C-alpha cells in the first residue's frame, strides 16, 4: 500500500498531536511537592510551604515573600517591597530614626509618600518588632 503525500502529512500531524498530548498528561503528574522553611528578616517565625506530593519532578523550593521588620530593615531591604524605591526607603529609615521607631505597621502611613493604597499593597509583608 502506497501513501500519497497528503496522507503522509496527515499521518505526521496525527503522530505529533498524539505525542504532545501524551507528554502533556504525563508531565502534569510528574510534579513533586516540596516542603520548605524560610527564615524571615528579624525574629518573626519561619514560614512553611506545603503542596500535595507528586512523583517524578526534581525538588525545588517554593519561595514565599519575605516579611520585613520596619524597625530593623535597611533601606535596601525596604526597597524589595512592592512600590518602595530608594528615595521612599530612605524616608522610611529617616522617619524611624527621627521618631524612635515604629509602634505599629499602620504608623508607616505617617511617612511622606506612603498613602493608604501603597500601605494596603505591603501591609502583609511588613511587621513591627522592637529593635534590640
Provide key terms for this protein.
132 residues, mainly alpha, two-stranded parallel ribbon, 4 helices
Characterise this structure.
- It is built from four helices and four strands.
- It has about 130 residues and is mostly helical.
- A two-stranded antiparallel sheet has the order 1-2. Strands 3-4 form a two-stranded parallel ribbon.
- Strand 1 and strand 2 form a beta hairpin.
- The longest helix has 24 residues.
- About 5% of the residues have low confidence.
Query: How far is it from the N-terminal to the C-terminal residue, by CA?
Result: 85 Å
Summarize the biggest pleated sheet: 2 strands, antiparallel
The SSE string, one letter per element, is: HEEEHHHE
Low-confidence stretches: 33-39
Return the average pLDDT rounded to an integer: 79
Spatial order of the strands in the main sheet?
Answer: 1-2
Number of beta strands: 4
Q: DSSP strand (E) fraction?
A: 5-15%
Number of helices: 4
Rg estimate, integer Å = 26 Å
Could you say which structural class the secondary elements and strand pairing correspond to?
Answer: mainly alpha
Overall morphology = rod-shaped
Task: Write a short abstract of this structure.
It is built from four helices and four strands; from the N terminus they run αβββαααβ.
